[in-house]
Every structure is written in C-alpha cells, then in structure tokens.
Amino acid sequence: MTTASDGAVAGDAGVPVAAALFRCLGDPSRLAILRHLLLGEHRVVDLTRHMSLAQSTVSQHVACLRDCGLVVARPQGRATVLSVAHPADVLALLAATEALLGHGGDAVALCPVRPAFGVGPDARAGGEGAA
User: Fold this and answer.
1) Do 81 and 93 belong to one domain?
2) Quick one: three-class SS letters along the chain?
C-alpha cells in the first residue's frame, strides 16, 4: 500500500465522498427505497404507498439518494419519475454486501432482481443468474 510522507494512505481524498455514500446507504428506509427502485421506475407518490412512509420522508430520502448519484429523476407531466442511476453497479454493491455479511454468518438477500443482471454469487458460480 502506498503511503504519503505524512503517513496517510495515498488516495485518501476520496474517503469523505465514499463515507457519504455509505452513510446514505446506511439508513434502512433509503436502502429499502433504492431496492424498490431496482424493480422499476416509480413516482414519489407510488413510493409513499409501497413503502408506507410519509411523502415528506420519502422526498428527503430520495434527495439524499439523488445527491449521492444513486437515483435519477425525469419529469413526466406534472410528476417526477425516479429510477436507479446505475442499476448494474448498485446490484453489484448489494451482492458484495450479501457476500461480506454471509462470511460473518449474517446471510441476507439484498438483490431483488439479481438474475436479470447476471451479478452476484449465483452468476459467479454459473448458477441461475449466470450471464
């Protein structure tokens, strides 16, 4: 590992940005919204119904997800339609999270649409989601 003369790891400048991304994903409601958007585009009003959250709460969580570049919005009439900005990358991150948690004995299923993208443990092992 390359270190700078002051003892810091080279490339530490990106750490605060990465920390902000992980902080965004660390909220259970935001993670649930992101996972739900992986299933397809939604309007905020749809998310409020599906997630049983107040409109203002969903809007605040979506703003954070947009600020981190995880969610994009496009106008559709008077509404705004939301979608995941980079679905394959988000699925890969969720699959890596599943794998890491599985190593510690805390198996979870975070990838709601993994087979469609061919990522994750099943795809690597040549299973059902293999590309």
Assistant:
1) no
2) CCECCCCCECCHHHHHHHHHHHHHHCCHHHHHHHHHHCCCCEEHHHHHHHHCCCHHHHHHHHHHHHHCCCEEEEEECCEEEEEECCHHHHHHHHHHHHHHHHHCCCCCCCCCCHHHHCCCHHHHCCCCCCC
Phi and psi at residue 130, to the nearest 5°: -65, 140
9 domain residue, yes or no: no
Q: CA 104: distance to chain centroid?
A: 21
Which residues, 6+ apart, have CB-to-CB distance to 12 below 8 Å? 4
Query: What pTM, to 2 d.p., does this model score?
Result: 0.73
Task: Write the pLDDT tens digit of every residue in 13-37.
Answer: 889 999 999 999 999 999 999 999 9
Structure tokens belonging to residue 61: 């969580």
The answer to the question of residue 95 being in a domain is yes
